[in-house]
Amino acid sequence: MAINKFLIFFVLILCCACTSNPFWEDSPSKKINIQGYINTQSSVSDVRAFVFVEDLNISTYTDTSGFFSIDLPSLEMEDGVFSGAVKVYYYIHNYTVAYSTLYITNGRLTSEQVDFDDNGALIDSITLKQLASFDLSVDNIWNRSDGDTLKLSLAITSKNHPFSYCSYVDIQSNPRLYSPSGVLLKSKTNQAVYYDKNNTDILQITDISLNETKVLEFKVAANGFFPFILDDYILIEQQFLQSGEHEVLPYIHIIQDDIPDELFESMGIQNVAIIGENFFKMPIDVIKETLLIQ
Questions:
Q1: How far is CA 59 from CA 2, 34, 63, 73, in A?
Q2: Could you tell me the pTM of the whole model?
Q3: Are 131 and 282 within 8 A, CB to CB?
Q4: Residues 222-274: pLDDT tens digits?
Q5: φ, ψ (nearest 5 deg) of residue 35
Q6: Engineered SS bond to 269: which of 43, 85, 264, 284, CB 3.0-4.6 Å?
Q7: Mind listing the domains of the chain with CATH numbers?
Q8: Of 204, 259, 208, 207, whose CA–CA distance to 93 is shortest?
Q9: Roughly how many angstroms between the first and final C-alpha of the chain, as a whole number?
Q10: Are strands 202-208 and 177-181 parallel, antiparallel or unpaired?
């Protein structure tokens, strides 16, 4: 009898020591996924909205249909499991930013969601309102060998309500003028990015009223473009602007005070008030123009 009791005790100890309990299954941790659709009020391109989850620093872009899906990783923090309300931002540069609120308790979605359902799907699709329309005009061929100046214009028209924007200007004297500058070119061959370094003097903030249109006229000399980084590690063919096709994008940043800096940093833009090659990563609703450089 004593031997039977010992055997039963030994079996129980062995079962408790097993990683897989024979008497019950631990419920697997539930992965959190949020998803939904983002629409635009009136778009002229196939721009994809940027989706950013604040506090968790998780981001993605919508697909061509406006759909996004984000898996939230483990929400275990140093001081416990994450709980709180986080904002999910939806961003296109020339549209008014929008956000939804996601409620999390102990690493799980709460049942008291307002913008999402219990499974993490947006209850209603988000429609972003156009803040400004951009109309870029440029000759599609630029012959630098003749010393021609590159000329292009950008018409900015405010929609829905007034706003302010940052841009660079070149200060000229006799008479004193503030000529728009800050043109970027991105090679379609090697993805190198160049800007008109000689003409980028100061950063200027401009106010634009409702339904107002401002036309910025840019002019860049034949030898005016330079790469952002010039050192021993940059390829020779990237140190100087090469012939071939380039995407054109003047630097303009619309100011929206309720956008966290972390949103831009998640796109790889450390400071939106400084012209940089990562500006091409910003989703902008504009018809892209291609420039053939000869």
A1: 63, 11, 13, 12
A2: 0.84
A3: no
A4: 888 988 875 556 665 666 788 899 999 999 999 999 999 999 999 999 888 88
A5: -155, 165
A6: 264
A7: 32-128 (2.60.40.10), 132-293 (2.60.40)
A8: 259
A9: 99
A10: unpaired
